[in-house]
Amino acid sequence: MQTLTRELSKYVNQAFVDAGYGDAYGAVKVSDRPDLADYQCNDAMAVAKAQRCNPFDVAEAVSSRLQDCPAFSSVTVARPGFINIKVNDEYIASRMNEMRADDNLGFVPCDDPCTIVVDYGGPNVAKPLHVGHLRSAIIGETMKRLARFLGNNVIGDVHLGDWGLQMGLVITEIKHRWPDLVYFRPDFVEGMDENLSISAEDLYNIYPTASLKAKGDPDYMAEAQEATLMLQNRHPGYYALWKNFMQISVRDLKASYAELSVDFDVWYGESDADEYVNDMVEGFISGGFARESEGALVVDVAEESDSAPMPPCLIRKSNGAMLYATTDLATIVQRVKDYNPDKIWYLTDARQTLHFDQVFRCAKKTGIVPETLKFEYLPFGTMNGKDGKPFKTRDGGVMRLSDLIQMMHDAFADKSRNSANVDSDETAALGGINAEANEIARLVGNAALKFGDMVNHRTKNYVFDLDKFMSFNGKTGPYLLYTVVRIQSVLRKAEERGLACGPITAPCGDTERSLMLELSRCSSMLLSAYDEKAPNYICESLFNCASIFNKFYFENRILDEADDARRGSWLTLLTLIRDIMKQQLWILGIDVPEKM
After folding, report:
1. Are residue 423 and residue 533 in the same domain, yes or no?
2. Cβ(416)–Cβ(593) under 8 Å?
3. Fewer Cβ in 10 A, N or C end of the chain?
4. Are residues 370 and 515 in the same domain?
5. At residue 347, does pLDDT exceed 50?
6. CB 162 within 8 A of CB 127
7. Rounded to the nearest 10 degrees, how much is the dihedral formed by the CA atoms of 30, 33, 37, 38?
8. What's the predicted TM-score (pTM) here?
9. Is 219 exposed, middle or buried (0-12, 13-18, 19+ CB in 10 A)?
């Protein structure tokens, strides 16, 4: 199948050709005036500009060649040269039946499938995930799922921060607390390992303690820097200790990400690229790309076209230590070797724009990547509190991500216990403290959090508003889940009554027609989300489908419809709506409960 927009554009394009205007015209788009038309084509103005003629005459000539097109019920022209199109009702119904029979529900793959590495984690080992990790996790997971669903080969990489100063700080603090551990013995050799009897929670206390000490004690900082360098040089004891607390921390990180239904194909960190660093840096030097600056090694990445100063990319500090840019570049070398990707996507907040600009320029300039490889930086805004500042706890601290997730779950559980206003005929009983209720609370809480985030354009800051996010009315995750659960309830009752589905017939009302048109546009919205790396397109599509369906639901007594053919058509249409919405929700990382 093709998207409906492309299919209709073929008809209009042929009309431009037949009218003698060439094959470069005819693209249609959803009408800006849905009261006048379903779709419109504005290319008559482009023809008029290129050929110095009247756009209205061009539109009339094209329109006259579309009057007998079986896909259109009417084609009219509005000044100065808009071609307004209404789609034939039987054609829309036929489209619905094709989508229902299609394994992909009418969703069309992207035009140029390729191999993509998505870097969307970036947590530091020995530190808990906090609210600042939310957006990279859920937007990255969505982009990974979307790209894969559209036919790409996608590798999601967490890219752990496990090789920098924070590791030296943790090692130093452990040494201060437990100096007799075997890892600190001068005669330590591989095989003398011992299990660390510390928990992830202990690690999460160790790092901030060490960081605070280092800020006020130059000697402690120097010791941590030395420990970092020794670790990076594979000091036997430090390296063995590092592997131990890495295992503890990663196990906890995996559990935290799983709470958000976020999963990575590979759990690589900066350390995994370490083996590529020395050869890469030597290549920079021998190739004449790197130079010394105050004892450090840098690569100039400024370009003549720059309108603002572009500082050089710092590769190695004067003390020999590597930096984030170094490990990011080495990670690129590793990814090219392992996956030979066509694209690498990076998701971080917008404050790292300069860093990635430097890294991408350095990679291209030094030739460590093929010319065809495309870097795409997907920055995002911040989640703010109602004061407009980055979201904090009540006491002003940085909230753990696990606490935020629990807050959402608890909010739904509280709402459930006070849900006398919820239609009990449409939903299972809410509220009881049991495993099923807890699972529903988890799913709805996650839906509220994720949809509340991604309904905003990726690059925009937004305000975290718990009451708004948890509402069952309006553009929210709970509203979408409630809609799908409502559809599932109707279909379940139909099955219990032995009511059969049938072919989808032409719509018998404006709302049903609007619903079919909206479903036919879901594939185009998905492709727009992919092209622009903007999940909010999917959110808008979901909300449009849900709101039109609910209007249709209240206008019609679906199960009590006396006309068997119409009722069967509606039931099939409901299965299509349910499956399309569930597919879109899955791409957003949102699972649907059977009941609510």
Report:
1. yes
2. no
3. N
4. no
5. yes
6. no
7. 30
8. 0.94
9. exposed
